Amino acid sequence: MSGISSDGSWRNWAGNQRSTPVRIERPRSEADVVALVRATAADGRRVKVVGAGHSFTAIARTDDVLVTLDNMGAVVGIDHDTGQVRVEAGARLFNLNPQLHAAGLAMPNLGDIAYQSVAGATSTSTHGTGLGFSSVAAGVVGMRLVAGDGTVVVLGPNDDPDLLEVARVGLGALGIVTEVTLQCVPAFNLHAVEEVLPADEVLDSFDEMAAATDHIEFFWMPHTDLAMRKRNTRTTDAPPPPRNRRHALRRRWKRFKNKELMENAAFGAFNHIGRMAPSLIPRLNGLVASEGDRAEYLTTSYEVFASPRRVRFYEMEYGVPAEYGIEALRRVMDLVQNLGRPISFPIEYRILGPDQIPLSTSFGRPTAYIAVHVFRRTPYEDYFRGVEQIMDDYGGRPHWGKLHFQTSDSLGGRYPQWYRFQAARRRLDPTGRFANDYLDRVLGS
To answer: Which fold is adopted by the domain 189-398?
Structure first.
Protein backbone atom coordinates (compact mmCIF):
# COMPACT_ATOMS: atom_id res chain seq x y z
CA MET A 1 0.00 0.00 0.00
CA SER A 2 1.01 3.64 -0.55
CA GLY A 3 3.19 4.41 2.47
CA ILE A 4 0.70 2.84 4.88
CA SER A 5 2.36 1.05 7.79
CA SER A 6 1.05 -1.91 9.73
CA ASP A 7 0.34 0.37 12.68
CA GLY A 8 -2.12 2.40 10.58
CA SER A 9 0.11 5.42 10.05
CA TRP A 10 0.94 6.91 6.67
CA ARG A 11 3.94 8.74 5.25
CA ASN A 12 4.79 10.01 1.80
CA TRP A 13 7.63 8.80 -0.43
CA ALA A 14 10.05 11.47 0.77
CA GLY A 15 9.22 10.84 4.42
CA ASN A 16 8.56 14.52 5.23
CA GLN A 17 4.76 14.14 5.57
CA ARG A 18 3.26 11.75 8.14
CA SER A 19 -0.14 11.22 9.71
CA THR A 20 -2.15 8.76 11.77
CA PRO A 21 -5.71 8.70 10.42
CA VAL A 22 -8.60 7.46 12.52
CA ARG A 23 -9.17 4.80 9.89
CA ILE A 24 -8.04 3.78 6.43
CA GLU A 25 -10.51 2.89 3.70
CA ARG A 26 -9.58 0.65 0.74
CA PRO A 27 -12.52 0.78 -1.69
CA ARG A 28 -12.70 -1.62 -4.61
CA SER A 29 -15.42 0.13 -6.58
CA GLU A 30 -17.13 3.45 -7.10
CA ALA A 31 -20.04 2.18 -5.02
CA ASP A 32 -17.62 1.62 -2.14
CA VAL A 33 -16.41 5.20 -2.51
CA VAL A 34 -19.96 6.53 -2.40
CA ALA A 35 -20.67 4.54 0.76
CA LEU A 36 -17.53 5.71 2.56
CA VAL A 37 -18.12 9.38 1.68
CA ARG A 38 -21.64 9.17 3.02
CA ALA A 39 -20.39 7.42 6.17
CA THR A 40 -17.75 10.09 6.83
CA ALA A 41 -20.37 12.79 6.28
CA ALA A 42 -22.60 11.11 8.88
CA ASP A 43 -19.62 11.02 11.27
CA GLY A 44 -18.80 14.67 10.61
CA ARG A 45 -15.28 13.77 9.49
CA ARG A 46 -13.08 14.89 6.63
CA VAL A 47 -11.74 12.41 4.09
CA LYS A 48 -8.58 12.52 1.96
CA VAL A 49 -7.36 10.29 -0.86
CA VAL A 50 -3.73 9.31 -1.21
CA GLY A 51 -2.18 7.98 -4.40
CA ALA A 52 1.45 6.95 -4.57
CA GLY A 53 2.52 9.51 -1.96
CA HIS A 54 4.85 11.33 -4.36
CA SER A 55 3.72 14.81 -3.34
CA PHE A 56 6.12 16.62 -1.03
CA THR A 57 3.39 18.90 0.30
CA ALA A 58 0.73 17.87 2.81
CA ILE A 59 -1.90 17.80 0.07
CA ALA A 60 -2.97 14.23 0.99
CA ARG A 61 -2.31 14.38 4.72
CA THR A 62 -5.17 13.79 7.15
CA ASP A 63 -5.77 12.68 10.72
CA ASP A 64 -9.39 11.87 9.86
CA VAL A 65 -10.27 9.26 7.21
CA LEU A 66 -7.59 8.27 4.69
CA VAL A 67 -8.60 6.59 1.43
CA THR A 68 -6.23 4.65 -0.80
CA LEU A 69 -7.34 3.69 -4.31
CA ASP A 70 -4.69 1.02 -4.71
CA ASN A 71 -7.47 -1.53 -5.30
CA MET A 72 -8.92 0.58 -8.11
CA GLY A 73 -6.22 0.52 -10.76
CA ALA A 74 -7.74 -1.32 -13.72
CA VAL A 75 -8.03 -0.29 -17.34
CA VAL A 76 -11.81 -0.11 -17.82
CA GLY A 77 -11.93 0.18 -21.59
CA ILE A 78 -9.97 1.13 -24.70
CA ASP A 79 -11.60 2.77 -27.74
CA HIS A 80 -9.19 2.09 -30.57
CA ASP A 81 -11.09 4.34 -32.98
CA THR A 82 -10.74 7.46 -30.84
CA GLY A 83 -7.63 6.54 -28.85
CA GLN A 84 -9.51 7.21 -25.62
CA VAL A 85 -8.77 4.99 -22.63
CA ARG A 86 -10.85 4.73 -19.46
CA VAL A 87 -8.85 3.87 -16.35
CA GLU A 88 -9.65 3.66 -12.67
CA ALA A 89 -8.18 6.58 -10.75
CA GLY A 90 -5.74 4.50 -8.71
CA ALA A 91 -3.89 3.12 -11.74
CA ARG A 92 -0.15 3.75 -11.48
CA LEU A 93 1.50 5.23 -14.53
CA PHE A 94 4.30 2.66 -14.52
CA ASN A 95 1.69 -0.10 -14.84
CA LEU A 96 -0.52 1.76 -17.30
CA ASN A 97 2.16 2.73 -19.82
CA PRO A 98 3.08 -0.83 -20.89
CA GLN A 99 -0.63 -1.69 -21.19
CA LEU A 100 -1.16 1.28 -23.48
CA HIS A 101 1.88 0.32 -25.53
CA ALA A 102 0.55 -3.22 -25.97
CA ALA A 103 -2.66 -1.67 -27.34
CA GLY A 104 -0.68 0.49 -29.78
CA LEU A 105 -1.22 3.68 -27.78
CA ALA A 106 0.72 6.09 -25.57
CA MET A 107 0.14 9.14 -23.42
CA PRO A 108 1.23 12.23 -25.39
CA ASN A 109 3.60 13.52 -22.70
CA LEU A 110 4.84 12.33 -19.32
CA GLY A 111 6.84 13.63 -16.39
CA ASP A 112 10.26 12.29 -15.46
CA ILE A 113 8.95 9.70 -13.01
CA ALA A 114 6.05 7.27 -13.42
CA TYR A 115 5.32 6.19 -9.86
CA GLN A 116 2.22 8.39 -9.45
CA SER A 117 -1.38 7.33 -9.73
CA VAL A 118 -3.31 8.69 -12.70
CA ALA A 119 -5.55 10.82 -10.47
CA GLY A 120 -2.62 12.03 -8.40
CA ALA A 121 -0.62 13.10 -11.46
CA THR A 122 -3.50 14.93 -13.12
CA SER A 123 -4.85 16.51 -9.94
CA THR A 124 -1.54 18.22 -9.09
CA SER A 125 -0.75 19.50 -12.63
CA THR A 126 2.14 17.09 -13.17
CA HIS A 127 3.90 17.75 -16.47
CA GLY A 128 6.70 16.78 -18.78
CA THR A 129 8.58 19.04 -21.17
CA GLY A 130 8.21 20.32 -24.73
CA LEU A 131 6.84 23.63 -26.06
CA GLY A 132 4.46 21.83 -28.40
CA PHE A 133 2.91 19.78 -25.62
CA SER A 134 0.89 20.21 -22.45
CA SER A 135 0.54 18.71 -18.97
CA VAL A 136 -0.74 15.23 -18.19
CA ALA A 137 -4.06 16.75 -17.08
CA ALA A 138 -4.59 18.31 -20.51
CA GLY A 139 -5.12 14.80 -21.85
CA VAL A 140 -8.14 14.18 -19.59
CA VAL A 141 -11.32 14.14 -21.70
CA GLY A 142 -13.64 12.53 -19.18
CA MET A 143 -13.92 11.91 -15.46
CA ARG A 144 -16.11 10.41 -12.79
CA LEU A 145 -15.91 11.69 -9.23
CA VAL A 146 -17.82 11.41 -5.97
CA ALA A 147 -18.82 14.81 -4.55
CA GLY A 148 -19.00 15.81 -0.89
CA ASP A 149 -22.57 14.56 -0.46
CA GLY A 150 -21.81 11.16 -2.01
CA THR A 151 -23.27 12.03 -5.42
CA VAL A 152 -21.54 10.59 -8.48
CA VAL A 153 -20.67 13.35 -10.96
CA VAL A 154 -19.99 12.38 -14.58
CA LEU A 155 -17.92 14.83 -16.63
CA GLY A 156 -17.11 14.81 -20.33
CA PRO A 157 -17.49 16.71 -23.62
CA ASN A 158 -21.26 16.23 -23.41
CA ASP A 159 -21.51 16.15 -19.62
CA ASP A 160 -20.76 19.53 -18.05
CA PRO A 161 -17.62 20.28 -20.10
CA ASP A 162 -17.02 23.54 -18.22
CA LEU A 163 -16.76 21.69 -14.91
CA LEU A 164 -14.54 19.05 -16.53
CA GLU A 165 -12.10 21.75 -17.56
CA VAL A 166 -11.86 22.93 -13.96
CA ALA A 167 -11.74 19.46 -12.39
CA ARG A 168 -8.81 18.23 -14.48
CA VAL A 169 -6.53 19.84 -11.90
CA GLY A 170 -8.64 19.48 -8.77
CA LEU A 171 -6.06 19.13 -5.97
CA GLY A 172 -8.35 16.54 -4.36
CA ALA A 173 -10.55 19.45 -3.27
CA LEU A 174 -13.55 18.80 -5.51
CA GLY A 175 -14.25 15.14 -4.78
CA ILE A 176 -12.83 11.65 -5.00
CA VAL A 177 -11.96 10.86 -8.61
CA THR A 178 -12.90 7.27 -9.37
CA GLU A 179 -12.29 7.08 -13.13
CA VAL A 180 -10.43 9.11 -15.75
CA THR A 181 -10.70 9.01 -19.54
CA LEU A 182 -7.39 9.82 -21.23
CA GLN A 183 -6.92 10.96 -24.80
CA CYS A 184 -4.00 8.89 -26.02
CA VAL A 185 -2.01 8.97 -29.26
CA PRO A 186 -0.57 6.19 -31.42
CA ALA A 187 2.43 4.60 -29.72
CA PHE A 188 5.72 6.26 -30.58
CA ASN A 189 9.39 5.97 -29.80
CA LEU A 190 11.85 8.63 -28.71
CA HIS A 191 15.33 9.20 -30.05
CA ALA A 192 17.19 10.43 -26.97
CA VAL A 193 20.45 12.36 -26.90
CA GLU A 194 21.97 13.16 -23.50
CA GLU A 195 25.09 15.33 -23.36
CA VAL A 196 27.20 16.98 -20.67
CA LEU A 197 28.17 20.45 -21.90
CA PRO A 198 29.38 23.79 -20.51
CA ALA A 199 26.48 25.32 -18.62
CA ASP A 200 26.72 28.69 -20.39
CA GLU A 201 26.48 26.96 -23.76
CA VAL A 202 23.35 25.10 -22.67
CA LEU A 203 21.65 28.19 -21.25
CA ASP A 204 22.56 30.47 -24.15
CA SER A 205 21.21 28.06 -26.78
CA PHE A 206 18.23 26.71 -24.87
CA ASP A 207 15.39 28.90 -26.15
CA GLU A 208 16.44 28.39 -29.77
CA MET A 209 16.78 24.63 -29.31
CA ALA A 210 13.48 24.38 -27.42
CA ALA A 211 11.68 25.88 -30.42
CA ALA A 212 13.15 23.19 -32.68
CA THR A 213 13.08 20.11 -30.38
CA ASP A 214 10.09 17.99 -29.37
CA HIS A 215 11.15 17.53 -25.75
CA ILE A 216 14.13 19.19 -24.08
CA GLU A 217 15.39 19.74 -20.54
CA PHE A 218 18.65 20.10 -18.68
CA PHE A 219 20.19 19.70 -15.23
CA TRP A 220 22.81 22.06 -13.83
CA MET A 221 25.14 20.59 -11.22
CA PRO A 222 25.69 23.25 -8.51
CA HIS A 223 29.26 24.45 -7.95
CA THR A 224 30.30 23.28 -11.43
CA ASP A 225 30.21 24.89 -14.86
CA LEU A 226 28.52 21.83 -16.41
CA ALA A 227 24.95 20.93 -17.36
CA MET A 228 23.47 17.71 -18.69
CA ARG A 229 21.06 18.39 -21.58
CA LYS A 230 18.44 15.88 -22.72
CA ARG A 231 16.83 16.10 -26.17
CA ASN A 232 14.08 13.69 -27.16
CA THR A 233 12.73 13.49 -30.72
CA ARG A 234 9.49 11.66 -31.47
CA THR A 235 9.72 8.95 -34.12
CA THR A 236 8.04 5.78 -35.32
CA ASP A 237 11.43 4.31 -36.23
CA ALA A 238 12.18 1.07 -34.45
CA PRO A 239 15.29 0.70 -32.29
CA PRO A 240 18.12 -0.72 -34.41
CA PRO A 241 18.58 -4.44 -33.79
CA PRO A 242 21.77 -5.40 -31.96
CA ARG A 243 24.48 -6.76 -34.22
CA ASN A 244 24.90 -9.79 -31.98
CA ARG A 245 24.28 -10.98 -28.44
CA ARG A 246 27.43 -9.28 -27.18
CA HIS A 247 26.33 -5.97 -28.67
CA ALA A 248 22.89 -6.36 -27.07
CA LEU A 249 24.46 -6.97 -23.66
CA ARG A 250 26.78 -3.98 -24.09
CA ARG A 251 23.82 -1.72 -24.99
CA ARG A 252 21.85 -2.96 -21.99
CA TRP A 253 24.85 -2.47 -19.69
CA LYS A 254 25.44 1.10 -20.90
CA ARG A 255 21.85 2.09 -20.18
CA PHE A 256 21.97 0.34 -16.79
CA LYS A 257 25.23 2.13 -15.96
CA ASN A 258 23.76 5.53 -16.84
CA LYS A 259 20.35 5.13 -15.20
CA GLU A 260 21.07 2.92 -12.20
CA LEU A 261 24.74 3.21 -11.30
CA MET A 262 25.37 6.90 -11.97
CA GLU A 263 21.89 8.42 -11.47
CA ASN A 264 21.00 6.31 -8.44
CA ALA A 265 23.70 4.19 -6.79
CA ALA A 266 26.71 6.49 -7.18
CA PHE A 267 24.64 9.65 -6.79
CA GLY A 268 23.10 8.29 -3.60
CA ALA A 269 26.51 7.40 -2.21
CA PHE A 270 27.83 10.89 -3.02
CA ASN A 271 24.91 12.46 -1.16
CA HIS A 272 25.53 10.35 1.94
CA ILE A 273 29.20 11.35 1.85
CA GLY A 274 28.22 14.99 1.31
CA ARG A 275 25.95 14.92 4.34
CA MET A 276 28.83 13.77 6.52
CA ALA A 277 31.39 16.09 4.89
CA PRO A 278 29.63 19.05 3.20
CA SER A 279 32.91 20.59 2.09
CA LEU A 280 33.32 17.68 -0.34
CA ILE A 281 30.04 18.37 -2.17
CA PRO A 282 31.45 20.65 -4.92
CA ARG A 283 34.09 18.06 -5.76
CA LEU A 284 31.57 15.21 -5.67
CA ASN A 285 29.22 17.14 -7.95
CA GLY A 286 32.02 17.30 -10.47
CA LEU A 287 32.27 13.50 -10.42
CA VAL A 288 28.60 12.93 -11.27
CA ALA A 289 29.21 13.88 -14.89
CA SER A 290 32.19 14.86 -17.01
CA GLU A 291 32.23 17.27 -19.94
CA GLY A 292 31.86 15.33 -23.16
CA ASP A 293 29.84 12.49 -21.64
CA ARG A 294 27.20 11.49 -24.18
CA ALA A 295 24.52 8.83 -24.52
CA GLU A 296 22.24 8.23 -27.49
CA TYR A 297 19.47 5.66 -27.71
CA LEU A 298 16.03 4.99 -29.16
CA THR A 299 13.23 3.18 -27.37
CA THR A 300 9.56 3.43 -26.36
CA SER A 301 8.38 6.88 -25.30
CA TYR A 302 7.52 6.03 -21.72
CA GLU A 303 10.89 4.39 -21.10
CA VAL A 304 12.66 7.58 -22.18
CA PHE A 305 10.34 10.08 -20.49
CA ALA A 306 10.51 8.50 -17.03
CA SER A 307 13.57 7.34 -15.10
CA PRO A 308 13.89 5.46 -11.81
CA ARG A 309 14.37 7.70 -8.77
CA ARG A 310 15.80 5.72 -5.88
CA VAL A 311 17.60 8.56 -4.08
CA ARG A 312 15.00 10.30 -1.91
CA PHE A 313 14.84 14.06 -1.74
CA TYR A 314 12.70 17.13 -1.06
CA GLU A 315 11.70 19.30 -3.98
CA MET A 316 10.33 22.74 -4.86
CA GLU A 317 9.30 23.57 -8.43
CA TYR A 318 8.00 26.80 -9.93
CA GLY A 319 6.56 27.66 -13.31
CA VAL A 320 7.32 31.12 -14.71
CA PRO A 321 6.56 32.72 -18.09
CA ALA A 322 8.86 31.04 -20.60
CA GLU A 323 10.40 34.31 -21.79
CA TYR A 324 11.81 34.91 -18.31
CA GLY A 325 12.85 31.34 -17.58
CA ILE A 326 16.58 31.52 -18.27
CA GLU A 327 16.83 34.88 -16.51
CA ALA A 328 15.14 33.45 -13.42
CA LEU A 329 17.37 30.37 -13.54
CA ARG A 330 20.54 32.47 -13.65
CA ARG A 331 19.36 34.25 -10.51
CA VAL A 332 18.81 30.88 -8.81
CA MET A 333 22.31 29.80 -9.83
CA ASP A 334 23.71 32.96 -8.24
CA LEU A 335 21.69 32.24 -5.10
CA VAL A 336 23.18 28.74 -4.87
CA GLN A 337 26.71 30.05 -5.26
CA ASN A 338 26.16 32.59 -2.47
CA LEU A 339 24.02 30.50 -0.13
CA GLY A 340 26.83 29.83 2.31
CA ARG A 341 26.50 26.05 2.14
CA PRO A 342 26.92 23.61 -0.73
CA ILE A 343 23.97 22.05 -2.60
CA SER A 344 24.38 18.47 -3.78
CA PHE A 345 21.32 18.04 -6.02
CA PRO A 346 21.10 19.33 -9.60
CA ILE A 347 18.68 22.07 -10.63
CA GLU A 348 16.24 20.94 -13.32
CA TYR A 349 14.92 23.15 -16.13
CA ARG A 350 12.01 22.24 -18.42
CA ILE A 351 9.61 24.07 -20.72
CA LEU A 352 5.97 23.41 -21.63
CA GLY A 353 3.21 24.77 -23.84
CA PRO A 354 0.10 26.46 -22.41
CA ASP A 355 -3.26 24.96 -21.52
CA GLN A 356 -6.62 26.35 -20.36
CA ILE A 357 -7.10 24.46 -17.07
CA PRO A 358 -7.83 27.05 -14.35
CA LEU A 359 -5.38 25.75 -11.71
CA SER A 360 -2.79 24.38 -14.12
CA THR A 361 0.63 25.89 -13.51
CA SER A 362 0.89 26.46 -17.29
CA PHE A 363 -2.54 28.08 -17.65
CA GLY A 364 -2.55 30.61 -20.48
CA ARG A 365 1.18 30.84 -21.06
CA PRO A 366 4.19 28.86 -22.30
CA THR A 367 5.95 28.00 -19.07
CA ALA A 368 9.51 27.39 -17.94
CA TYR A 369 9.81 25.12 -14.92
CA ILE A 370 12.67 25.42 -12.45
CA ALA A 371 12.99 22.65 -9.87
CA VAL A 372 15.35 22.64 -6.90
CA HIS A 373 16.03 19.67 -4.64
CA VAL A 374 17.89 18.68 -1.50
CA PHE A 375 18.81 15.27 -0.18
CA ARG A 376 16.13 14.16 2.29
CA ARG A 377 16.65 15.04 5.96
CA THR A 378 18.68 18.04 4.79
CA PRO A 379 17.68 21.56 5.88
CA TYR A 380 16.05 23.35 2.97
CA GLU A 381 14.01 26.33 4.20
CA ASP A 382 16.61 29.07 3.59
CA TYR A 383 17.36 27.68 0.11
CA PHE A 384 13.74 27.17 -0.92
CA ARG A 385 12.59 30.51 0.48
CA GLY A 386 15.35 32.23 -1.46
CA VAL A 387 14.26 30.50 -4.66
CA GLU A 388 10.62 31.33 -3.98
CA GLN A 389 11.46 35.00 -3.51
CA ILE A 390 13.00 35.02 -6.99
CA MET A 391 9.99 33.24 -8.49
CA ASP A 392 7.62 35.75 -6.92
CA ASP A 393 9.20 38.45 -9.09
CA TYR A 394 7.89 36.62 -12.18
CA GLY A 395 4.44 35.67 -10.90
CA GLY A 396 5.70 32.12 -10.40
CA ARG A 397 3.21 29.33 -9.80
CA PRO A 398 4.34 26.53 -7.47
CA HIS A 399 3.73 22.89 -8.33
CA TRP A 400 0.80 21.88 -6.11
CA GLY A 401 2.55 18.72 -4.96
CA LYS A 402 5.95 20.24 -4.25
CA LEU A 403 7.15 22.32 -1.34
CA HIS A 404 6.35 26.03 -1.23
CA PHE A 405 5.28 28.68 1.28
CA GLN A 406 2.42 30.38 -0.58
CA THR A 407 -1.13 30.97 0.68
CA SER A 408 -4.46 31.64 -1.02
CA ASP A 409 -3.83 35.38 -0.62
CA SER A 410 -0.64 35.23 -2.67
CA LEU A 411 -1.82 32.60 -5.17
CA GLY A 412 -5.23 33.88 -6.20
CA GLY A 413 -3.88 36.69 -8.36
CA ARG A 414 -1.56 34.34 -10.27
CA TYR A 415 -4.44 32.34 -11.75
CA PRO A 416 -6.78 34.41 -13.98
CA GLN A 417 -9.62 31.88 -13.53
CA TRP A 418 -9.16 31.28 -9.82
CA TYR A 419 -12.83 32.21 -9.37
CA ARG A 420 -13.97 29.29 -11.56
CA PHE A 421 -12.22 26.80 -9.32
CA GLN A 422 -13.65 28.37 -6.17
CA ALA A 423 -17.15 28.20 -7.68
CA ALA A 424 -16.66 24.50 -8.50
CA ARG A 425 -15.43 23.84 -4.97
CA ARG A 426 -18.50 25.49 -3.46
CA ARG A 427 -20.72 23.45 -5.76
CA LEU A 428 -19.12 20.02 -5.24
CA ASP A 429 -17.87 20.25 -1.65
CA PRO A 430 -19.69 23.08 0.15
CA THR A 431 -18.96 21.67 3.61
CA GLY A 432 -15.24 21.05 3.08
CA ARG A 433 -15.50 17.26 3.27
CA PHE A 434 -12.29 16.92 1.22
CA ALA A 435 -10.36 19.78 2.80
CA ASN A 436 -7.30 19.59 5.01
CA ASP A 437 -4.83 22.06 6.47
CA TYR A 438 -2.86 22.35 3.21
CA LEU A 439 -5.92 23.03 1.08
CA ASP A 440 -7.21 25.52 3.65
CA ARG A 441 -3.89 27.34 3.33
CA VAL A 442 -3.59 27.42 -0.46
CA LEU A 443 -7.28 27.66 -1.43
CA GLY A 444 -8.82 29.28 1.62
CA SER A 445 -11.05 27.49 4.10
So the answer is: Vanillyl-alcohol Oxidase; Chain A, domain 3 (3.40.462)
